[in-house]
Backbone:
């Protein structure tokens, strides 16, 4: 599977709710176990916020664990965004919200 941010329609990706909508539209919850996902973030992208990342990928990070997520989801894109992903993964592991953003 390929997730190309260019097809998601914005140069700026913000908001947990928008990330959750993208997750739903991409059907990430029905992804086959172990299926490698190529995530392409175009060089023209201005920003991806942690809230968008957590909405889009947070449930996968929590389900797979940090190392499992990094094996299954392979990112390419601008260094200034890629350098933030390890921090966002750690944040997802600490964040216990469900897919609707509700804390336990």
Residues:
């Amino acid at each position: 599977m390929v997730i190309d941010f260019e097809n998601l329609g914005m140069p700026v990706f913000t908001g947990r709710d928008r990330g959750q909508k993208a997750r739903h539209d991409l059907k990430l919850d029905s992804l086959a176990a172990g299926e490698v996902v190529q995530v392409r973030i175009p060089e023209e992208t201005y920003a991806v916020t942690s809230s968008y990342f957590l909405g889009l990928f947070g449930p996968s990070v929590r389900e797979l664990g940090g190392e499992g997520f990094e094996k299954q989801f392979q990112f390419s894109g601008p260094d200034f965004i890629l350098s933030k992903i390890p921090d966002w993964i750690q944040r997802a592991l600490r964040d216990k919200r469900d897919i609707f953003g509700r804390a336990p």
Q: What stands out?
A: The chain has a mean pLDDT of 90. The beta strands are 2-4, 12-13, 37-40, 47-48, 73-76.
